[in-house]
Amino acid sequence: MKNTILFDSGSTKTDIRIICNRQITELQCAGINPFYQNGDEIYHALLNCFGQDENLEEFNIFFYGAGCSFEEKKEIVRSALSHLFPKSCIIIENDLLGAARALFQRKNGIACILGTGANSCLFQGGEIIKNVPPLGYILGDEGSGANIGKLLVADILKGIAPQKVILRFYEEEKCSCEEIMNRIYKGSFPNRYLATFSKHIYRHIDEIYFQNLILEAFDNFFKRNIVQYDPTVKEIGFVGSIALHFAPQLEITAQKYGYSIQQILKSPIEGLISYHTASPRE
Predict the structure, then answer these.
(1) What pLDDT, in 10s, does the model give residues 94-129?
(2) Are 107 and 203 in contact (CB under 8 A)?
(3) 147: closest CA among 181, 111, 193?
(4) Are strands 235-239 and 109-114 parallel, antiparallel or unpaired?
(5) Per-residue pLDDT tens for 221-238?
(6) CA–CA separation, 4 vs 30, rounded Å?
(7) Where are the alpha helices (DSSP H) in 120-262?
C-alpha cells in the first residue's frame, strides 16, 4: 500500500493518521471547514500541524471533511493541501462519507454524525445513496452539540429553564447574557461556541430537565431526518462526541423509532484506517 494520510475533519478538530511503511503516526489540529475558512487559513492550519518537511513525500491523501459536499468547497481544501503536498494524489470527500465508511465499511446501514454538527445518510455498497440535508446549526443540525447548546442557552436567557438550573449555569459558566449574545452573533465559529455548553449538560445529565432537553433534540433528529430514509433499513450507527456521551438517551430515541444501533464511535478515524487498508473484498 502506498504511503497514505487520512484526515477526518469536523468543525472543532481534525484527526490525522499518517500511514508509512505500516507505521501509523497520529496528529491532531483545529477543525477545518471551507464554509468558514478560506484557502490561506486552511493552509496555515495545516502548516502549523505538519511543518515544512512533509512536502518532499508522496502520499495518497484522503481528506474527509465538514463543509466538503460541494466541488467549490472541496477545491479550497484541495488547493491548500496541494501547496503542502505537491507530489501527492489528493481525494476530498465530505465527513459524512467518512463516517459511513468507518461505521459500516462496505455493508449497508444509516450512518449519522452527532458532534458539533449533525448529518445522516443511507449508505449502501460503500457509497451514500440518500442524504437529508442537515442545513447547519441555524436551520437544522438537530441533535448536534450546537443544537443542544442553542436549546439550553435559549431556555436560560428566556427564563424557561428551572431557576436552580439558571443560577448554576451562570455560576459555572461565568458568562453574562451580553457576552453570550456577542459570541453567537458577532464572534467567529458560533456553532463551536454553542457546542461547548453540551459539557455543562453532560455534567448534570442525571437531572430530568437535561435528560428531557437531550431527548427533545434527539427526537427532532430522528423525526426530521432519519425517518425519511428507506423504512426497511433499521441498522443505524453514529460517530461523534454527542452520540457517545449521551448514548443512553440516543438508545431510548432509536428504540422509540424502531432502529437498532450497531455501534457508536467517538471518531471515525480508526474505522477509516480499516476501510483504506483492508482488501475491497473483505
Answers:
(1) 989 999 999 999 899 999 999 988 999 999 988 899
(2) no
(3) 193
(4) parallel
(5) 999 999 999 999 999 999
(6) 20
(7) 136-139, 145-158, 163-173, 177-185, 190-195, 198-203, 208-224, 241-245, 247-256
Identify whether the C-beta of residue 24 lies closer than 8 Å to the C-beta of residue 17: yes
Look at the chain and count its residues: 282
Q: How far is the CA of 142 from the CAs of 87, 116, 174, in angstroms?
A: 40, 11, 26
Q: What is the pLDDT of residues 31-49, one digit of tens each?
A: 888 888 888 989 988 888 8
- From residue 138, give the alpha-carbon distance in Å to each of 117, 135, 194: 11, 7, 11
Helices 39-50, 71-84: axis angle to 10 degrees equals 40
Residue 175 reports pLDDT greater than 80? yes
Measured CA to CA in angstroms, residue 62 lies from 4, 44, 59 at distances of 8, 19, 9
Q: Which of 39, 198, 45 is nearest to 116 (CA)?
A: 198
